[in-house]
Amino acid sequence: MKTNFPVSFSNRLQMQMGAEASLLLEALATDSPTSIRINTAKFQAPVQLEKVPWSSHGYYLKERPSFTLDPLMHAGAYYVQEASSMFLEEVVKQTVDLTQPLRVLDLCAAPGGKSTLLASLLSKDSMLVSNEVIKSRAEILAENLTKWGAPNVVVSNNDPRDFDRLEGFFDVIVVDAPCSGEGLFRKDPNAINEWSPDNAHLCSDRQRRILMDVWPALKPGGVLIYSTCTYNPAENEENIQWLSEQTELEPIRLDVEKSLGIKELEAANNLVGYQFMPHMVKGEGFFVCAVRKLDGDDWQAPRKDKFPLAPTGKKEQVEVAPWLTDEREFFQHYENILALPTGDNESWGAVIRELRIVQAGVLVAEIKKKNLVPAPALALSIIFKKDAFPAWELDLRQALQYLRKEEWPIHRKKDGWHLMCYEQLPLGWIKRIATRFNNYYPLHWRIRMELPGELPGTGLL
Ligand code: SAM
Questions:
Q1: Pocket residues for ligand 1 (CB within 6 Å)?
Q2: Ligand 1 center to residue 104 CA distance, Å?
Q3: pTM of the entire structure?
Q4: Domain 389-461 has CATH 3.55.40.20
Q5: I need a labelling partner for 104 at 20 to 30 A (CA). Which of 158, 166, 360, 365 fits?
C-alpha cells in the first residue's frame, strides 16, 4: 500500500517524534491487521488464532474475511474490533474494582466496540449507559449491543451536556472522543482526505467541550477514561492537561509491560497517557489516559420520584418469566415488555427518566392483539433460556438465507414460534404455519448481499 500523507501531518510528526516519525510513516503505508474479540458469554469454542497480547479474548485473523457471510458475527459470538482499542480492558481492570456494581457511561459509543467490551467486563449488577449523539449511529449501536446480548445496558441518544441531569451519578465515564482520526489513516484512507490542521484544531476544541460537559456526571472518586485514535498531542495529553487545570483530578499511572511496545507519554502535573503506534504494536494508532475525579458531590436519588415505567400485567409476567435464566422485573413501554434487573430501581429510574432512551434492558416481547411476539433481542440475550422454545439448527447456507429474511417450505410437526440457530447460537425467530413459516428477522438488520455459490468461513470454526 503506497500512501501520500499531507505534508503538514508529516512535518508535525517529525517535530513531535524526530527520527521515529519515518518509522511510523512507513508503518502507516502497510496493510492494517484484522482482529476480533470473542463474546465468551456466548461462544466458548477453542480459538486457534494469534492472541492480541493486551486482551483476554482478542485475536488476529490471518486475512480479512467477508464478515457479512458469517452467521456467528450476526449471533454476537464476536465483535470486529481494532486491536489497540482492546487495551481499554486493561485500563478498566487497573483503575476500578470490577467485582462491585458500577454505573458506567460510554459517552461517544457508536458503533459499539468499547461498549461491547465494557459490557463483558462489568459485574452482574452493574449498569452500562451507552450513549451516541447522532441518531442514525445510535440505532447501529443499539443493533450491535442487542446482538452482543448483555442484559444491563441502556442505549441513549443524548448530547454530552444533557448528562448534567445526572450529577455525580457515574463511577466510570469513557470518552472515546471524535478526533482527527490519524490513527485510522491506513485502515480508512478517507480519514487522510478529511484531515487538515484546521480540522485537527476544531477536534481539540470540541473534545474539551465534551470533557467539560460530562465531567459533572462523574462522582467524586470516579474514573474518567479518555481516548482518541490520533497521534495529535493537542487532542491527547494536552487536553487532559487542560482538564486538570479546570478541575480537581488525580493522574492514574498504569502498570504496562515494556515488551508490549506501548509508549508512555508524560505530561505536566504527573499525567501519563498511553500511545499505540503501528511501528511498535500490531494495531492502529490509539491514545488513552485515565484520571480520578477529586471534586464534586455524589448523586442523590430524588426522594419521591415514581419509576418512569409501569409494570407489565401479571398474566404477561407469568408467561415471559420462564424465558429468562435470571430473575428480572418486567415493565411495559407501549406494546413492548422490557426486562430490567431487580434491586436498583433508583438508578434505572433516573437514567430512563433523564435521558432520551433508544433501548433499556432486554426487550422480551411485543404484545400484539393480546398475544406475545418474542422479540429478536430476547433470542440474542445472554440471559435467554434457550430451551423455552423449540429450536431449529441451520447449516451455513440456511443460516445466511434466514439472515437475508428468506422463507422456504418446511416439514415440522409443531406450529408456532421456533428459534433459528447456527452452531447452537440463536439468530432469531420464525413462526411456523402448516408447511411454511414467516421469517421474523428484523428487516433493517437483514443481509442485503447475494450469497455466492461457494461460502467462505472466517477461520473461527
Ligand atoms: N467508542 C466507539 C467504538 O469503540 O466503537 C467509537 C466512537 S467514535 C471514535 C466517536 C463517536 O463520537 C462517534 O460515534 C460520533 O458520532 C460521536 N460524536 C461526534 N460528535 C460528538 C459530540 N459533539 N459529542 C459527543 N459525541 C460525538
A1: 85, 108-114, 132-134, 137, 160, 176, 178, 206, 210
A2: 16
A3: 0.97
A4: no
A5: 365
